[in-house]
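DATA SHEET
Item: assembly model
Revision: 1
Owner: S.N.
Input lines:
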Amino acid sequence: MSYVAFVDVMLKEGISDPQGATIERALPALGYSGVSGVRVGKRIRLEIDATDQSEAQTKIEEMCERLLANPVIESYEITIDSYEVTL
Amino acid sequence: MSYVAFVDVMLKEGISDPQGATIERALPALGYSGVSGVRVGKRIRLEIDATDQSEAQTKIEEMCERLLANPVIESYEITIDSYEVTL
Amino acid sequence: MDSAVYHELGLTDDEFEAIVARLGRDPSYTELAMFSVMWSEHCSYKSSRVHLKELPTEGPQVLVGPGEGAGIIEVAPGVAVAWKMESHNHPSFVEPFNGAATGVGGIVRDILSMGARPIALMDPLRFGELDSSKTAYLVDGVVHGISSYGNSIGVPTVGGEAVFEDCYAENPLVNVACLGFVEKLMHGRAEGPGNTVILIGSSTGRDGIGGASVLASAEFDETSAEKRPSVQVGDPFTEKLLIEACLELVRRDLLVGFQDLGAGGISCPTSEMASKAGTGMRVDISSVHRREPGMEPFEVMISESQERMLGVVDPTNVEAVLEVCTRWGLEARVIGEVTKSGRLEILDGGSVVADVPSAALAEEGPVYRRPSAPPKWIEELRAQPVGDDAPVDLGQALLKLLGSPNISSKRWIWEQYDHMIFLGTVQGPGGDAAVIRLPGTDVAVAITVDGPGRYCYLDPYEGARLAVAEAARNVACVGARPLAITNCLNFGNPEKPGVMWQFAEVIRGMSDACVALGTPVTGGNVSFYNETKGRAIYPTPVIGMLGVVPSPESSIGSTFANSGDAIFMLGVTRLGDFGGSEFAKTINGQVGGAPPQLDMDAEKKLLDFLFSAGSRLLTSAHDVSGGGLAVSLAESAIRGGIGFTVKLPGDEAHRVAFSESPSRAVVTCAPGRMKEVLDLADAKGVSVAELGSVGGDLLDFGPFQVSLAEATSAFEDGFERSLTATLEA
Amino acid sequence: MGARVGIVVFPGSNCEFDCERSFAGLGAEPELVWHGETRLPNVDIVVLPGGFAHGDYLRTGAIARFSPIMDAVAEHARQGGPVLGICNGFQILCEAGLLPGALRKNAGLKFLCKWVEVRVDNADTAFTSQTERGQTLKVPINHFEGNWIAEPEVLDRIRANGQVVLRYTDNPNGSMDDVAGLMNEAGNVFGLMPHPERACEALLGSSDGSLLLTSLIESVSGVRAAAG
Ligand SMILES: Nc1ncnc2c1ncn2[C@@H]1O[C@H](COP(=O)(O)OP(=O)(O)O)[C@@H](O)[C@H]1O
Ligand SMILES: [Mg+2]
């Protein structure tokens, strides 16, 4: 079966995020006040073949540890959509 | 009130994604077969003050149209967590 | 106080006793933390100081020697440059991208602190053999980190090194050198009690807490993983703003004194600037702008958050300084004032959290003359065969060498670096040295970095002399006169007598060579504890040589230019010089015996010849180093896209082709100028051999040939091929 | 008196000094303009230089295009005044909608600093008048996001209008239709990824870039002579 999954990779707490901070500083000038705590991460969408959802989950976790995320500074979250049959 | 929101910015369908393609090419070598349709986008987390959820929504949509996404190549999705009172 | 507390901060019992004696009481935890970073190996040079004293540091060209942010050298009347090298080894192993990026940021602020605009970077890098995917990952991350930071702040990276040896597998070396153009010489001194102290730049967070003591002053082991919270993310954008804002402050004369924040965080410039000026400082850390809530005073004092500078400002200029910073979008906060007390008083709002003599932190750190003795293995190593057996096929051997990670072109690396910005890069990466025209002047300097670790492993004294000589030769080959050096000394654990011996020998060799060549040491950096799980790296002194070219137009290239040009070799080839050579390692898998011995007198004559001949007489010049004469000839041919015909003796051709005798160079001249070359060589007492001529699409050595096309693909694609092969494996 | 060139400095710009030097070397009168200004000084040409405005954070040019000066730049363009965006400047012009399309990461996912060859495919513009159609120029590129893309219909339109001014002869970054440099429909706003200001001196590798900058300078000196 084929699953659609999303992997959200964000910088760990305490790791500074200059990009987020810069965006946050730019917003007021564009007329957006009251925005804070901006953090920028990655969102990865993928389709994966697996016999069942839990296999998909384990496979993706492995991929995160080895390739998709940098475990030293990033944490990740995996969301798997209920399976779809790809044509 | 203050809301935590996530903005997911992905390349539009049909726009090729070199980053996703590269990851897809690298995976088999690491022993992961059956992964396809890899797309890499951005996930932006932010906290925003608004009187209610719908105001937060409109504010963020505007920010996306003008700043957070580039309509020529990107599409976006907004998720707002149920409000939290920040201390 | 419970000894566990200060042990955990990396302080020994003796060091703790010394602190108590100096204060006449037990230190507060904040004070203890401050001592732990300031007395760390990284900040205090406690193991190296006694040896560094031996180095020659003076000369008419030296305006500022070691001890400040960077050495300052006068390269033409009224024109001065800052030149300095630093290491960021352990952080780059923990997190290659950000470790390397923040390494660039650190050295750039050192240069900036002297009132100089950073105008060029070089990145001597060392990794394990390129056949492991871990190494490939590190290479990719480090290069990407340097590229993204250096390019963004708009400072060109014009050269470097990339060396691959197994000993660096678990302990890569990421050194970065920076050249600055002095706009107005500044000093890191807190003169004038009553002056205001301003912290400029990024907010202070918990990132990089104890970096100096944790990452740079201890061996590596499994537990290093838990030290990862101290990983820092570089912010090149803020660094760029810092450069422009600070240079404006300098130009407008708004600063009394000025220093960067690096290792040791706020503790470092506050204590050092006060101590140097014999003053004190009162600082209220409640006014330090923070990135995170609930930070402890000690965290604020030792956090190594990047992209920050400390300025001492006359009260009448405070407004102007704050205006400049705000305009550039930088945070700047008044955090204290200079005092007469000679003490560093740290307040947190109302309460005093630290009160110690500034000198105690900055200058009165421990000094160790650590036990030093030749390691047991060295004799055995020297007794081993050098690995000079003839190869089956000389042509194949040459191709193998040209394609090997250490020799092959590093284009894959330097094409990721902006090496052109400032319109000063007369010669960029790819040659023997970079030639940089200084902004708004007609003065050009040559810079290069060299660190033959394998030679130093076999014989640290001789290896260090060879390092200095090769660096000098590299700048001479582009037509420059060597002026001064900076260095980065990468070694193992100094608490081991064998490592300390290597260090002492390297210092001795470097001193002798620098004295002989008249190139004083204007500064540098020592990185100890480059060991992982007890395994030390090769002793690796990286020499950064600075030279001056008569004029930007007069530099010489290393590429064969015109068909018909005559090819000469200058210097003497000794047929037995294979100890620690690329040939021995790559072809015979052997590292042993003694390295080539340097004849300093011959070296000086060669340098003199190259400088006097210059582009007036020569159409190209390229030094003979790794891989020997054959590789040197091949490189010039490949870079020029044209072949050559030379006649090497038939018997034992591999010795002539691949021996690594120092003090040699390959030069070319127009056919009509041959006699002048021979006469000049004669006049300078340099032995010269007429080898043949440039032309055709064959590298014809006489006894063997390879096609220019084959050689080019081996040399140009070799590196990327090995790298991507392992990345995808 | 030479053409007056206003070079906009954004926080994070880093090629402003090089542009200044090269334009001055060609007889123009460059002047740096801070992005925070709301009015342009009296200039004939506006240049958005290369660099990393606002660190290139979020997207290249995304934040810079909101700088106060950008309204004045747009107005200058609306009135037919020449605007040149080099590298990051090109990216900003696309984000600001003054030029079509967008720039993505290079296909090779690597930053590239190297000499390339571009072909002039429209020599009949204010930016290329000193060159010939089909002529190739040696100029350096220096970017991570030079991979230009636009909707197919947009590409068809600008091709039909001859708005593609420069094309790579050997595409280094995956850019659609080998686009290296573009102009707007009116023909007064130009954007290119290569750095002509870095190619104005043989000593540094090439002086082909000066042909482009001179074309621009000439284009306005005519106008100003007419204006008397
Ligand atoms: N990490 C690097 N970054 C930039 N340039 C590099 C790097 N490594 C090597 N180079 C360049 O490649 C060329 C060859 O390097 P190397 O073989 O060390 O020169 P040499 O043997 O003459 O000292 C030099 O111009 C050097 O600057
Ligand atoms: Mg060399």
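QC remark: Residues 53-68 of chain B form the longest helix (16 residues).
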